Structures are given as structure tokens and as C-alpha cells.
Amino acid sequence: VLSIMISSLATGTIITMTSHHWLMAWIGLEMNTLAIIPVISTMYNPRSTEAATKYFLTQAAASAMILFSSMINAWQTGTWDITNLSYSPAHILLTTALAMKLGLAPMHFWLPEVLQGSTLTTALIITTWQKLAPMALIFMTLNNLSTTTLILLGLLSSIIGGWGGLNQTQTRKIMAFSSIAHLGWMITIASIMPNIMILNLVIYMIMTTALFCSLILSKSKTIQDTTATWTLSPTLTTMMMILLLSLGGLPPLTGFMPKWLILEELVAQNLSPTATIMAMSALLSLFFYMRLTYTTTLTLSPNTAQAKFKWRFKPNRTTLLMWASSTISIFFLPLTPLITQ
């Protein structure tokens, strides 16, 4: 059953990314939504059922808005072509719907709740793979979308993504707000330099995958759980520390690359106030990454002598994906000139 769901997820995303007709794009999005819902509710507890219901309602509402916006656009222009979105109310409605699908502020309320009700693996799928189809639609309709609206959405998302994460103790909720903040950066640059948006999306997905793999391996559901990572694997602890700093966007690491390029481009476009606010909001995000880094590496959980230390249970799964994505997430910055030529 799981393989059917995963293949449906992949198929839905690919249909949306390769379609030129609005109805096909909508079908792909619906396949995506319907495939992930059983995966979210596999835990058979009220929390996961609630998460699946919330996810379904928000995604169904956003899909309906996308269908409605494409219908009124087709009504006005006589074409169902995705790239020909010239009717103004249609593209405003579409921007709102895609923001809701992605979890951009102010339509972000569902994302932390849904992640909290899911397993860490499901949360990984929702924060990475599920962002691909809506981002593809944004990329295809960029010429017709309002730059001002996108920048405002991006600013709000980066601020709320930083602010909301400050108060959290659950790693899944922290990753949800991290996702909101990163998506804010992507949307801000989208209509100015789409290729930087794609680069940012790829780097964000690699870094998020690496961190979620680390959390899954160390079974860390709360900040307190991360304190016991050292007893499982000192190597994993060190990698998690550098990964978190990379996600925060500190200079020698890969995570600095998209922030650097975006700020540079915003300043070049005379959007210095926007760039300043974005940089300040990154400090909020950096605070909760630093807090996670501190608990992971510099504190030990107050265990009693009888406590079962994690090193007794050796991890038995292959961690190739984690090590590969971690390496890219940390050491990729020197290759920036090759990518941005």
C-alpha cells in the first residue's frame, strides 16, 4: 500500500510539473493530496487523524481556488493554457491558493499542526516533496503574477517563520516554521530572479532532508530528545550541529549561498528595505537553530544510572541518503561561482 501511495505522490507531482493545461495541473495536485492523506493517518491515533483532516481541508480549499481561478481566466481569455494567465482577479486568486498550498504566511496555520500530528518521515515528505508541484506552478505563471504581492508574502513568511519558531519545543514544529521562513525567501526572489528561486528550493530540500534523516535516526521528537544524540553517535551529533548552522545560513556553509544571492539581487533591484527586513528575520530563525545546536552538542540529558543509553541500540538502517545530503548541505558554498555563472 505504501508503495502505491509513494508512486501516486511522485506521479501527481510529475503531472503538475509537465502539464500545460490547468485541468491537468489540478488533477496532479489532487493526486498529491489524496496520496499523502493515508500516509499521514497511518498512526491510528486522534492526533494523526486530526492532522490528516486539517491537511485535506486546506489542500482541497486551495485546489478549488486554483480551479476557480483557471476557470475565470479561461472564461475571460478563451484558453486553458497555464502560461497565459492574463486576467487580473485570476492571478490574485491563484497566488492566494498557491500560498495556501505551500503554507506561506498568512495562510500558514495548518502546517505546524499537520507536521506535529505526523511521523518524522511523513513530515519530511510534506516539507520537501509536497512543495514541488505548487512551486512549479508559481514558476510557470511568474510572468503574470504580481511582484508586489509575492514580495509581501515572502516578507511576511520570513518574519512569521522566524517568530513562530522561537516558542517551540517540538522539533517537527520548529521544522514547520523553518519551512515557512525558507519558502518566504524563495517567494521574495521568485519574480526577480526565478533561477535563484530554483537553486534555493533545491538547497532547502537537500538541507531539510539531511536534518530530518538525522532526527529520524536519533528519534528526536522534542528539543530535550536531541540532548541524548551524543550517546547514540558523536559523528551524527557533529553533523547535526553543522547542518543546523547551515540551515540558519551561516557563511562558510551551503545554507549561506541562497541568502547571499537573494540579498545581493534585492539590493541590485533597489529593494534595500526588503533586503534589510529579510536579513533581520533570518536572525530570528538563526536563534532557534542555535538553540537546537546548543542542546544537541553542548548538553547531556540528565539520565539516571539505570537509564537505557541509546548506544545499546545500534541504528540498523542505511544512512547513505543522510550522509550524502548532509555533505552537500555543508560543503557546497565554494561551488557557488560555477552554479551562478
Can you characterise this structure?
The chain is globular and about 65 Å long. It has 341 residues and is mainly α. 74% of the residues lie in helices and 0% in strands. It has helices spanning 2-18, 22-40, 46-77, 88-102, 110-117, 120-127, 132-141, 147-165, 171-190, 194-218, 223-226, 229-232, 234-248, 256-268, 272-298, 320-331, 336-339. α1 packs antiparallel against α2 (22-40), α3 runs antiparallel to α4 (88-102) and α14 packs antiparallel against α15 (272-298). The termini are far apart. 47% of the residues are buried.
Radius of gyration over alpha carbons? 20 Å
Count of alpha and pi helical runs: 17
| Multimer state | single chain
How many DSSP-defined strands? 0
Structural shape: globular
Kindly estimate the percentage of residues that lie in beta strands according to DSSP.
under 5%
Provide the low-confidence segments as ranges: none
Q: What is the straight-line distance between the termini?
A: 44 Å
In percent, how helical is the residue content? over 70%
Decide which structural class fits the backbone.
mainly alpha
The major beta sheet can be summarized as: none
**H and E string:** HHHHHHHHHHHHHHHHH
Mean pLDDT: 92
Outline the fold blueprint.
Blueprint: H1 2-18, H2 22-40, H3 46-77, H4 88-102, H5 110-117, H6 120-127, H7 132-141, H8 147-165, H9 171-190, H10 194-218, H11 223-226, H12 229-232, H13 234-248, H14 256-268, H15 272-298, H16 320-331, H17 336-339
Helix pairs in contact: 1-2, 1-7, 2-3, 3-4, 3-5, 4-7, 5-9, 6-10, 8-9, 8-15, 9-10, 9-14, 9-15, 10-13, 10-14, 10-16, 13-15, 14-15
Domain NADH dehydrogenase subunit 2 C-terminal: 286-339
Family: Belongs to the complex I subunit 2 family.
Keywords: Electron transport, Membrane, Mitochondrion, Mitochondrion inner membrane, NAD, Respiratory chain, Translocase, Transmembrane, Transmembrane helix, Transport, Ubiquinone
